[in-house]
Write a structure and sequence with these properties.
Layout: H1 14-17, E1 19-20, E2 34-37, E3 41-48, E4 59-62, E5 75-84, E6 88-99, H2 104-107, E7 110-113, H3 122-125, E8 143-148, E9 158-166, E10 172-176, E11 192-197, E12 200-205, E13 209-214, H4 225-233, E14 251-256, E15 263-267, E16 274-280, E17 291-293, E18 301-303, E19 312-317, E20 331-337, E21 341-345, E22 357-361, E23 364-367
Parallel strand pairs: 4-8, 4-10, 5-9, 5-11, 10-12, 11-13, 12-14, 13-15, 14-20, 15-23, 16-20, 17-23
Antiparallel strand pairs: 1-2, 2-6, 3-6, 6-9, 7-8, 16-19, 18-19, 21-22
């Protein structure tokens, strides 16, 4: 890309930030390709992120789920933290790939992409000049992506993302990643971590780990506080004109890819009113994974519709008192994995040449004070 606002990585910087997994001094042509990654690079530094009025951001998308476009694959980890200042967004990016050399030839064509509207090659967007969201004010149709400026992106290249959002952003978050596991000796899984989710989210991944910690929120986080209080005052009677928050209930969906075993941990506040639908779609013969709710940590925990099984559970926690409350209401949590199986994985280039680690994945769990959403090192 030649647009100065989005082509934020310069090849001249790469030598100081790459983490190679190959021996120094080896001849480039004789050396087999090895995994490399750069250190975290800031690509969006606290630009305006509208939260009120006509320009308010309703949806933020990170990662590409468009299987028909081969040049926008992130294939890495996604970290999102709701601990930034009001009205601002920051993004960092860490590119990775395989190379025989120092990595410059891999990374020079990978760049940060943050345009709104329909996806199009940069040569079509550059004519607009100010179309890049990274240039000034974030707009509602902007997406956080990696772009490969070439014919086809290498299947072993991509980027990790680290996004900081306002602590009180109650809009929708959409995250997508996949595994970078075409090399059996370097199975890098795309993990997702969300810290203090303040609104709704949809997360799609393959055989990675998803750790989501909900912030101190109520069942309808986008509903105005005075409107939420009005619903509580009428015991959530859906027929009461005073109660308008049923249509603004929060939703969290974590969706595992077909044929993949994702492990999902969702950290829920002990007082949150929520409906929980957890499932592992593996056959009954694939034992070893569970869909579980740590009921003991919540004020109330009821079993809905059918008896629990090891692979599926439907629960309501902390439902308000009152016969008029709509069934299966509250903040909706739906999470699942398509498989339950042993998954090989490797932490990064430093483990190149060692035997991959392995663990059973496919468990889906709702709990409290349990998710791993620590800030990654080096950001």
């Amino acid at each position: 890309m030649t647009n100065a606002s989005t082509a934020l990585f310069l090849p001249s910087l790469l030598l100081s930030v790459l983490v190679p997994a190959c021996e120094p001094g080896a001849d480039d042509e004789d050396r087999p390709p090895a995994p490399m990654e750069e250190s975290w690079q800031s690509v969006v530094a606290g630009i305006t992120f509208p939260q009120t009025g006509d320009e308010a951001i309703s949806v933020l998308k990170v990662g590409s789920d468009d299987s028909g476009n081969d040049n926008f694959h992130n294939r890495g980890d996604i970290h999102v933290r709701y601990d930034g200042p009001p009205g601002a967004i920051s993004v960092s990016m860490k590119r990775f790939g395989f190379s025989r050399k120092d990595g410059a030839e891999v990374f020079e064509k990978l760049s940060f992409w943050a345009y709104g509207g329909e996806w199009a090659p940069p040569r079509e967007k550059e004519s607009g000049g100010d179309a890049s969201c990274a240039a000034g004010v974030w707009t509602d149709d902007c997406q956080i992506l990696v772009y490969f400026d070439g014919t086809n992106q290498n299947v072993r290249s991509g980027a990790d993302f680290y996004v900081t959002l306002p602590v009180d952003y109650t809009g929708v978050l959409e995250l997508f990643t996949e595994d970078n596991a075409t090399n059996d000796s370097f199975p890098s899984r795309g993990d997702v971590q969300v810290h203090n989710l303040a609104g709704s989210a949809t997360i799609k991944l393959s055989s990675g780990r998803a750790d989501v910690k909900l912030g101190d929120i109520n069942a309808a986080p986008s509903c105005a506080p005075e409107a939420y209080a009005a619903c509580e005052a009428v015991a959530w009677d859906p027929d009461a004109t005073e109660c308008s928050c049923y249509l603004e209930m929060g939703v969290l969906q974590v969706i595992g890819a077909k044929g993949a075993a994702a492990s999902v941990t969702i950290d829920v506040p002990t007082q949150l009113w929520a409906t929980l639908n957890l499932a592992n779609e593996a056959s009954a013969t694939q034992l070893g994974c569970t869909a579980q709710v740590d009921c003991g940590v919540f004020g109330s925990c009821t079993d809905d519709v059918f008896d629990d099984t090891e692979l599926q559970t439907l629960r309501t926690i902390n439902e308000p008192d009152g016969a008029a409350v709509l069934a299966n209401s509250g903040y909706s949590v739906s999470a699942g994995s398509k498989m339950c199986q042993s998954v090989d994985f490797i932490a990064g280039p430093s483990e190149w040449g060692t035997k991959p680690q392995s663990e059973y994945r496919g468990t889906v769990r709702v709990c409290n004070s349990c998710a791993n959403t620590e800030k990654p090192g080096g950001v």
